[in-house]
Amino acid sequence: MSQKVPVTRTDFDRYLVPSYAPSRIVPVRGRGSRVWDQQGHELIDFGGGIAVTGLGHAHPALVAAITEQANTLWHASNLFTNEPALRLARKLVEATFADKVFFANSGAEANEAAFKLGRRYGANTGGENKYEIVSAINSFHGRTLFTVNVTGQAKYSSGFGPRIEGVRHVAFNDIAALEAAVGPNTCAVVIEPIQGESGVIPADPAYLKRARELCDANKALLIFDEVQTGMGRIGKLFAYEHYGVVPDVLTSAKSLGNGFPIGAMLTTDAIAGHFTPGTHGSTYGGNPLGCAAAEVALDIINSPEVLEGIPARHERFMQRLEKMAKDYGVFSQVRGMGLLIGAVLSSQWQGQAADFVRACEDQDLLILQAGPNVLRFAPSLIIDFTDIDEGLDRLERAIKSYIGAHESATA
């Protein structure tokens, strides 16, 4: 039997590629909306593993599903299908606009599949010049070479050689810019209904509606990246339902598996037919373990008990965050939908989001940042109200402590 050797945070610096700069905290156990680190400190989790653990940590139904599947079949490859994948695909189709599903292992892979499908669709329907993809400035779509080029932030794509051709970026929520960019050579327009990584910025309904019209007029695909906004995060199973704008392609990951790696691309029969055997694939995509976890997560999240409970939790966060904005002058705006909330730092505190995150860790609270100027909250969709209140108390203590230390240092 494998022996577990003692490890600490310093082992990251010694053994792992330095592509991350992780917190000093090493979580070792989680239950619901609380986690415990190596020293036994209990922390409240308002970050959800970057909007992933929509049902919290170690949800008993998910533990049971993964355990049962682990005792039967782990892997089959794409040479075969498997029962969990078939069940999950059927339930996703029945719950959405889609007719077909492609399974991947992550949000980046789901987006990679969507962008490749867009280009294949364009080539098949409009010829070799119909390959342009229109994306938004400050968007985020993943870390593969294709997805970082579609991502509207140069910091993610710079330094990796020539850019992928045919990608145009326009200002988010700017209808005129979108109209100028979309044309006969456009194969796809990709939009996050809420830009998550760049500051929790919701799309304007008119912007999404116009994107749908432009895609229809130019025979281009409208792709919604719902990796972060999907699976109940804003109070609907997927955000497109809230806006009443139906995409041609939708991508999902993060909360789809509640932490077990899985991604999905959803589309219609007519569009799915442009992916024929051999045009795209994944050895692990649709593996039985991931699909078993996702099926149970979908069943639980897509229920009245969960979805109808999100607005009250949203209000609990908003009321306290807006009060903190008034009492301490630390936030200039609190925005977002459902349980994807961004608190924008006021001018005095711009650029210090990472420092506030660390101050929260000192108060045994885990939160996220969305760029240098926004604190992001993406907790479990079923977080107890007592955990919300206690976590917000800890946030308030962190704010008071950070402001006090800053004022003392500048006095």
UniProtKB/TrEMBL annotation:
Cited PROSITE patterns? AA_TRANSFER_CLASS_3
Q: Binding of N(2)-acetyl-L-ornithine: at which residues?
A: R143, S282
According to the UniProt entry, its GO molecular function terms are: diaminobutyrate-2-oxoglutarate transaminase activity; identical protein binding; N2-acetyl-L-ornithine:2-oxoglutarate 5-aminotransferase activity; pyridoxal phosphate binding
Task: List the catalytic activities from the record.
Answer: N(2)-acetyl-L-ornithine + 2-oxoglutarate = N-acetyl-L-glutamate 5-semialdehyde + L-glutamate
- Cite the binding residues for pyridoxal 5'-phosphate: G107, A108, F140, D225, E226, V227, Q228, T283
User: Pathway it acts in?
Assistant: Amine and polyamine biosynthesis; ectoine biosynthesis; L-ectoine from L-aspartate 4-semialdehyde: step 1/3; Amino-acid biosynthesis; L-arginine biosynthesis; N(2)-acetyl-L-ornithine from L-glutamate: step 4/4
Look up the record and name the cofactor or cofactors this protein needs: pyridoxal 5'-phosphate
Return one Gene Ontology term, BP aspect: L-arginine biosynthetic process
Its domain of life reads Bacteria
Protein family per UniProt: Belongs to the class-III pyridoxal-phosphate-dependent aminotransferase family. ArgD subfamily.
Subunit annotation: Homodimer.
Q: What else is known?
A: May also have succinyldiaminopimelate aminotransferase activity, thus carrying out the corresponding step in lysine biosynthesis.
Q: What is this protein called?
A: Acetylornithine aminotransferase
Q: Quick one: which gene encodes this?
A: argD
